[in-house]
Input
Amino acid sequence: QVQLVESGGGLVQAGGSLRLSCAASESIFSINFMGWYRQAPGKQRELVAAITSGGSTNYADSVKGRFTISRDGTKNTVYLQMNSLKPEDTAVYYCNAKRGLVSVDIYWGQGTQVTVSS
Output
């Protein structure tokens, strides 16, 4: 069982920045995939950014060039640096971990609210 604890959400004006953190209860290098998802009211949850255990990253088109996912193995923490925030980035952001390749275990954090005011 992997426990994920997010932090760093809040209220920011458009154009501002926030950094989200996701602390895992075990080594992030033992987890095949870690990602940030978000869910806005009335919308489906969507993948924002992801990083694999090998360090490969990918981003949703809507955040490319503005958001950066990174990790610190010494702290078992994955970060999402969000710059040039827009009101449409407002959502609850969830950390996600997937472990295993054939049989995949999926874990979610509790979510952290990000609100961008115009």
Notes: DSSP finds no helices and eleven strands in the chain. The two ends are 40 Å apart (CA to CA).
